């Protein structure tokens, strides 16, 4: 068995390659590469090396303010550097220590910090969050050192250009697990993004559901006790879970902005209380002329905002208010004003989507202390909104909207163009001064418009992660970014950084070569290995096979399985194996499995090889023959999944479209697979038969190379 050794420090969980990255010992150290780039760097010579025990010293009087962030830092260090100990001490700092202090230094701007790396590490900031951002810089520096313990000496001064550096995620039309949201908090924090807007409700397009509102998909993702039928049945968050998510975000310097979108995008409310739907404009519109509508929506907001311990714990809440019927402009403006004031009555500040240019009218809408996501200039002209007095967050659809596989906006953002040309002061076709006081920052967004198109969390992350890196740079450094590195150099350097301690959502596996996992069951070293969490040892599964003249793994009871050191591998990959299944295998018999996906010998009732993930079920047009050895190879990338049988391409699941009655519109049928590797077989419903020569490569092999696999 050849695998990526688990003794490598946990930074490898970020999917980073061990690079030749190092600093000269005697020359002045150049500015290190981190994302976002440091504002200023004064290099020294030599390196600081972390000891096996690292002492954390804190300025007297600042401990209470700094400790929440320092604890988060220590938790991350313990994951990233499992061989080290970290101790908080009360004495003065000494060589080898990391020392935190808060100082009233006018040269340190808001969220800024000074990082001095000498015989000890000194972190100085005006406020605790600035000190925390310095720890993200330290973690990135450690990630890029081959030993994860050396940092170039020098002094950095760093601060953000924009206060809001954000990401908007539509969980209404596609459910994202709580784990995904928690991981994204940590990922965003790693790149100093600090604003996570969670779009909690939305619905699909009626034409894809037989033009029937009753059948059209809708979801509201939070537990609701006032209207229990409001909460989505196919995925939701309890109040406790959502509170804990916000608490985690606070510990990571990230603000969660919960969004309840009304009065459009509101089919989930109408399904819970049908009488509040608009018969004139469609049931995804609330009837804003019906007094019952305000009663219901008031109750929904109140449930999350009222009491001594509200569910929405932060100081800002987003009320949606976009894309309502233009004919109701005055009533819409009244509705918007009412909900700004209603949410403010609970002590919260309000955010909303820009719609007031679209909904022109005489009805006044509150401006003071209200922040607007300006997304499309036809709905809210940025200059007009700024002149009215709104603070704005630049969220331009033509630059920053990802709508996976929809055929409009972006499937993947044009990152080179963004890096070279965009900063938050550019909104649509309008450009403002970079230091304009009303432009608070920017956010990019993922909208899952096409419900049921097969896009998974892994697919969304494949699109969002490179955008995180580029937009973290642009929203921290603004126009200064492109003067630091060319885009091509930035993209090259960015590959050295992963997702943060313990995260590997992309499933990037690095080995000495492209073969990152290999089970050869005729190898005595393999059969003698005892695993902690498998049914018996591998040796219990291995038997001599006369047909092959060698040993192979025999899954004989339908529950036998092998737990591997990996949970899965992401795009791009090749998985090769020999299989000899028994005749009597049940439907859904499992070949490979993890929490993310299963690969099945018999997909549901088809009898054909297939895979399932996130309640999508696909199969190849191929049945694996029983009682004979067959060589199978599965390859996968961000476009689809391919099957090779005995060295020849059998089928490529890629580029399919779904058609619908009564409409010419189509949506994609995405058939990607983040290949599951946690188990060969499964704890339940494992296939019956034999496997041999399981090989996993972290690249897609050529057709010729696949022919030559054995």
From TrEMBL:
Q: List, alphabetically, the Pfam families matched.
A: Glyco_hydro_20, Glyco_hydro_20b, Laminin_G_3
UniProt keyword Glycoprotein present: no
Q: Which InterPro entries match?
A: Beta_hexosaminidase_sua/sub (IPR025705), ConA-like_dom_sf (IPR013320), GH (IPR017853), GH20_Enzymes (IPR052764), Glyco_hydro_20_cat (IPR015883), Hex-like_dom2 (IPR029018), HEX_bac_N (IPR015882)
Span of domain Beta-hexosaminidase bacterial type N-terminal: 32-159
**Where in the numbering of this chain does the Glycoside hydrolase family 20 catalytic domain appear?**
162-478
Q: Which family does it belong to?
A: Belongs to the glycosyl hydrolase 20 family.
Indicate what this protein is called per its UniProt record: Family 20 glycosylhydrolase
């Amino acid at each position: 068995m050849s695998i990526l050794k688990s003794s490598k420090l946990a930074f490898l969980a970020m999917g980073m390659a061990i690079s030749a990255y190092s600093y000269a010992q005697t020359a002045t150290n150049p500015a290190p590469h981190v994302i976002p780039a440091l504002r200023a760097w004064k290099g020294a010579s030599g390196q600081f090396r972390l000891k096996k025990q690292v002492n954390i010293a804190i300025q007297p009087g600042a401990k209470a303010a700094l400790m929440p962030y320092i604890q988060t830092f220590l938790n991350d260090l313990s994951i990233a550097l499992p061989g080290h100990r970290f101790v908080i001490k009360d004495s003065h700092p000494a060589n080898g220590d990391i020392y935190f202090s808060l100082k009233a230094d006018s040269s340190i701007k808001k969220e800024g910090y000074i990082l001095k790396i000498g015989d000890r590490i000194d972190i100085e900031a005006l406020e605790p969050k600035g000190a925390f951002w310095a720890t993200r810089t330290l973690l990135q520096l450690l990630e890029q050192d081959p030993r994860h313990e050396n940092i170039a000496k020098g002094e950095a001064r760093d601060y953000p250009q924009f206060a809001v550096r954000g990401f908007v995620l539509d969980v209404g039309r596609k459910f994202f697990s709580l784990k995904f949201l928690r991981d994204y908090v940590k990922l965003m924090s790693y790149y100093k993004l600090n604003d996570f807007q969670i779009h909690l409700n939305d619905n699909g397009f009626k034409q894809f559901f037989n033009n029937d509102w009753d059948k059209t998909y809708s979801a509201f993702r939070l537990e609701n006790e006032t209207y229990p039928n409001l909460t989505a049945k196919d995925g939701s968050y309890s109040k406790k879970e959502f509170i804990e998510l916000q608490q985690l975000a606070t510990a990571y310097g990230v603000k969660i902005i919960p969004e309840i979108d009304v009065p459009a995008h509101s089919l989930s409310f109408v399904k819970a209380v049908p009488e509040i739907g608009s018969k004139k404009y469609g049931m995804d519109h609330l009837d804003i002329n019906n007094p019952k509508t305000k009663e219901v929506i008031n109750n929904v907001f109140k449930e999350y905002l009222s009491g001594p311990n509200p569910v929405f714990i932060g100081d800002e809440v987003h009320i949606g208010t976009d894309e309502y019927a233009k004919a109701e402009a005055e009533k819409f403006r009244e509705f918007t004003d009412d909900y700004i004031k209603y949410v403010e009555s609970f002590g919260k500040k309000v955010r909303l989507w820009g719609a007031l240019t679209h909904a022109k009218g005489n009805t006044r809408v509150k401006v003071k202390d209200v922040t607007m996501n300006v997304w499309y200039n036809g709905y809210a002209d940025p200059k007009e909104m700024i002149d009215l007095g709104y603070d704005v967050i630049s969220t331009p659809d033509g630059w920053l909207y990802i709508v996976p596989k929809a055929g409009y906006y972006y499937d993947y953002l044009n990152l080179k163009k963004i890096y070279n040309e965009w900063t938050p002061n550019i909104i649509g076709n309008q450009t403002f001064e970079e230091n304009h006081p009303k432009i608070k920052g920017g956010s990019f967004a993922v909208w899952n418009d096409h419900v049921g198109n097969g896009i998974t969390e892994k697919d969304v992350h494949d699109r969002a992660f490179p955008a995180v890196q580029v937009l973290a740079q642009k929203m921290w450094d603004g126009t200064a970014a492109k003067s630091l590195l060319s885009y091509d150099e930035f993209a090259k350097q960015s590959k050295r950084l992963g997702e943060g301690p313990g995260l590997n959502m992309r499933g990037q596996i690095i080995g000495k070569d492209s073969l990152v996992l290999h089970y050869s069951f005729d190898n005595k070293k393999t059969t003698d290995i005892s695993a902690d969490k498998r049914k018996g040892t591998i040796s219990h599964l291995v038997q001599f096979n006369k047909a092959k003249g060698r040993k192979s793994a025999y899954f004989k009871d339908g529950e036998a399985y092998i737990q591997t050191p990996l949970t899965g591998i992401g795009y791009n990959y090749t998985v090769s194996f020999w299989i000899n299944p028994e005749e009597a295998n049940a439907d859904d018999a499992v070949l490979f499995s993890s929490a993310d996906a299963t690969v099945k010998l018999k997909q549901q009732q088809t009898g054909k090889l297939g895979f399932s993930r996130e309640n999508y079920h696909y199969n190849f047009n191929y049945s694996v023959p029983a009682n004979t050895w067959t060589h199978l190879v599965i390859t996968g990338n961000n476009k689809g999944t391919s099957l090779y049988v005995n060295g020849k391409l059998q089928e490529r699941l890629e580029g399919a479209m779904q058609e619908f009655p009564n409409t010419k519109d189509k949506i994609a049928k995405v058939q990607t697979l983040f290949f599951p590797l946690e188990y060969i077989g499964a704890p339940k419903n494992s296939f019956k038969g034999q496997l041999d020569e399981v090989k996993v490569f972290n690249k897609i092999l050529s057709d010729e190379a696949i022919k030559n696999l054995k």
